[in-house]
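ESCALATION

Customer reports they have been waiting on this structure for their group meeting. Please prioritize. Original submission:
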Amino acid sequence: MLSWPYVFGYHGCDAGLARRLVAGEAVLFQSDSEFEWLGHGIYFWEDSPDRALRWAKEKMAAGTHKITRPAVIGAIIDLGNCLNLVDSRFIALVKEAYETYRETMVQTGRKMPANRGFAARALDCAVIESLHKSRSKNPFQTVRSFFLEGRPLYDDAGFRELDHVQICVRDAARIKGYFLPK
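Update from on-call: job pushed to the front of the queue and completed.
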């Protein structure tokens, strides 16, 4: 099994939950939404507490999450057996998973899910979940990928204002501890 280094991940949440997590009085639950682009798990921004806080503020303003006081919880994450999509060796696995998933959908006569913008990544989720199901004997514990998000920084820019690396933790035991960032 491949072993990756520890990384710092940041999760936007309510201040009360952040305090309870640090005190060991709460846990983060996996999201199992069909729109999670890296599959089901607990999501973190790698090395970006500001991005996590921005997310929490946006969710509070939209009223879509139980956030009344936006905050950030930091996590020390041991990536373990990681589907690291920042490393080109792993990209082929996702492509193969897509082909297998597509063939299955055609053979069973089911309609392929579709991605619908940033927040609705049903196809990506289905492909990643299909890949995970095919690896029951050697499951990935985390998924890590670079994500392009936001407006370009300038005309014809390859950089966007919200680009980040995101981590999806599938095995909560990979979270070694929580902390409150400054």
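Sent to customer with the following note: Helices lie at 15-22, 49-62, 91-108, 122-134.
Escalation resolved.
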